[in-house]
Amino acid sequence: MRNAVQLYLNGRRVEASGDAAFLTLSDWLRDERRLTGTKVVCAEGDCGACTVLLGRPDGDRPWRFDPVNACILGLAQLDGTHVVTIESVATPDGLHPLQAALRDNHASQCGFCTPGFVMALLGHFEHHGTCTPREAKNHTTGNLCRCTGYQTIVDAAVAVREPPPVVPRYHTNAVAQELVAVRSEPLELHSSTHGRVHAPSDLAQLLALRAAHPDARLVAGNTDLGVVVNKGTLWPPGSPRHAIVTAKVPELCGVRWDGDVVVVGANATLGEVERAVYDRIPELSRLLRVFASPQIKAVATLVGNVANGSPIGDTLPALLALDAEVQIQSVTGSRVLPLSELYVGYRNLALDRSELLTAVRIPAPVPNTLFSAVKVCQRKDLDISFVGAAFRLERDDVGRITDARVAYGGVGPTAARLPAIEALLVGQRVEDSVDVVATAIEAEITPRSDVRGSAEGRRVLAGNLYRRFALAHTAPS
Ligand SMILES: Cc1cc2nc3c(=O)[nH]c(=O)nc-3n(C[C@H](O)[C@H](O)[C@H](O)COP(=O)(O)OP(=O)(O)OC[C@H]3O[C@@H](n4cnc5c(N)ncnc54)[C@H](O)[C@@H]3O)c2cc1C
Ligand code: FES
Ligand code: FES
User: In CA terms, which of 110, 279, 308, 363 is 20 to 30 Å from 345?
Assistant: First the structure.
């Protein structure tokens, strides 16, 4: 069993072992590799100062390099990957055209955020020769600048023309083949100070580890767990961790269509889902557009959002309204459970201790279905939901509702469907349901007040979200 993380860093094979293998990627880069161009500000995935490019296999396609937040990635997740940092962007002949454009447009003052902006924008320029203002903004929703302001950064990105891609200077076919071999080996890290981390390389190993260590924490993209670890809430200093990283298990990778059902593997990222459902469930793709930032979506998984079980998890109302199911597996067998039966209490899942989620199955709505999924928060990008909602209505030829799904997040201890409201809708026309159903929703839910807002605010908003949906589908009289 290998006990050191092996990866490529800026075109060179490197290893991390002992206590260093338990560091976050950003701490390892800065403290062990002396690559201090990667900055750390928030250590919570919110500011983008620590952005690097992460290269991983992408099914049968060439390797994919995405901007990611190094501050919430553990090294064990990176076994068999290729990390490219800001230090590799310029050439001996000079700055990369994007760096030169930032300089020429006065888009950097203290400079602390600048490497992160460069790496985030490379997520675009590695594949495109030019960048529109909208694209520049979309690629940097996960980056904060406290002193320059954003317009000059957008101007700089727009000024760049046909920059040479960075990744091919470091990532050859030979490197990719070597890393594929690394990924096929299981890894187990041990430290008397930091604990144990397993990174199995196939599903059988993962299930056996889950059965043998039911108290070990499963780690997918680590975007929920990494934040609480950095805050010291989970595994505080002095309390050794025990984790099982799923990243290298090929059976959990990818998104595929099985007829009219999209099957999202447990390792599939939200970015992959956003692209895969773009044509057939556009409303879900649109919802994912405002989920976190490109850096988070490049590693965060749909299964992680589901398993985290937060009542304000953005995808949950949509998945509930679409009648999604979860595939569950253990060493003794597998089963499929409707998502509506997975949550049995606040962050409490109907899973046996030896079970894990292997996929989410999402049926595409049948043609002519009315479907909408929304999240309400204080700003459009990178914000936590106040209330989330999703509605799916099927109608007969004369416009009467034959089947209804109404699901909310943020108005109770779990995201949940409202069966009484769904029953109330059947037989009605959407245009007749506006106030009666919105009022019934307000009476049905039991929201609570918290730091983000009051129970009453959530109640009114929940009703109004249905009013807005129904009015949008009501012909003007
Ligand atoms: C900056 C930032 C912005 C964010 N923005 C949003 C947002 O807009 N909307 C939103 O809803 N969330 C948001 N999140 C939360 C987080 O990104 C999502 O919940 C994400 O989907 C978690 O996926 P992950 O793969 O990173 O999960 P992880 O952190 O790896 O794991 C999450 C949970 O799932 C469990 N788990 C993982 N894999 C499995 C499995 N196969 N079977 C069973 N359990 C498993 C883990 O043990 C853990 O309890 C944000 C987080 C950050 C840091
Ligand atoms: S340091 Fe802020 S996102 Fe990593
Ligand atoms: S230049 Fe100072 S934070 Fe952006």
Answer: 363
